[in-house]
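Thread amino acids onto this structure.
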């Protein structure tokens, strides 16, 4: 099964993707996590992406499609995958179609800007795994530490309020056109109300995608 999670920053894509990936034994392909790992490792690609990400703008379609193409060659993608935060432009969506990946469903997480800012400014991330917490809504067991490894959590540079507002503008201008694009191709288009608790939303998504498998 191949799924896309579409939604503005902070809508809960990463949080919910982890549940679906566990339930269906498919890998989560988060281009944001891949880029942050490249930056942490100091690769050329990481250096190219760093300042763009700090501003909250989008990394070029060529770089992103190159990363995804390479990732899809790994054996764990053989039975499908969940794309989290990709595609983010119409060019990326058509690039994905050209690679030959058949998408079964797009899950759009719908939420208001005010809630987003509240969620994103409190986000903390375990960078190596991409596990995500929130200091108010989903705190780790020990403050500042990952529940599984005990390693420190980071506060992303681009999770400052002013950068989040830019990212919301970028979402509207460059990513929201994918809503109409995917509503007009043959796949299940699933709209999910992303307000409420993590477990409420988990259930909404699980119920919506169960009939697909
Ligand atoms: P969020 O979880 O808040 O939606 P991500 O971790 O997915 O954010 O992305 C963080 C940043 O990484 C983006 O603001 C953008 O700069 C870059 N990025 C991630 N995925 C893509 C993509 N598919 N295309 C272009 N840039 C991307
Ligand atoms: P995205 O991947 O779409 O950017 P995340 O899954 O990283 O979003 O969630 C953004 C922030 O909001 C994180 O701090 C996360 O812990 C928190 N969060 C996720 N889902 C909820 C929810 N239903 N209620 C409150 N906070 C949430």
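Threaded sequence (213 positions):
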């Amino acid at each position: 099964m191949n799924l896309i999670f579409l939604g503005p920053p902070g809508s809960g894509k990463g949080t919910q993707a982890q549940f679906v990936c566990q339930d269906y034994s498919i890998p989560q392909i988060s281009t944001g996590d891949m880029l942050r790992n490249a930056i942490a490792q100091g690769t050329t690609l990481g250096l190219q992406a760093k300042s763009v990400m700090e501003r909250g703008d989008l990394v070029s379609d060529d770089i992103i499609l190159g990363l995804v193409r390479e990732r899809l060659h790994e054996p764990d993608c053989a039975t499908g995958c969940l794309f989290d935060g990709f595609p983010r432009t119409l060019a990326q969506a058509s690039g994905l179609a050209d690679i030959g990946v058949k998408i079964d469903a797009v899950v759009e997480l719908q939420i208001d800007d005010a809630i987003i800012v509240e969620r994103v400014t409190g986000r903390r991330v375990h960078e190596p795994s991409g596990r995500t917490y929130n200091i108010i809504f989903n705190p780790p067991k020990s403050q500042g530490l990952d529940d599984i490894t005990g390693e420190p959590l980071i506060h992303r540079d681009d999770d400052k309020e002013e950068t989040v507002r830019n990212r919301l503008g970028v979402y509207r201008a460059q990513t929201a056109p994918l809503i109409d694009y995917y509503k007009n191709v043959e796949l299940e288009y699933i709209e999910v109300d992303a307000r409420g608790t993590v477990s409420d939303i988990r259930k909404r998504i699980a119920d919506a995608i169960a009939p697909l498998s």
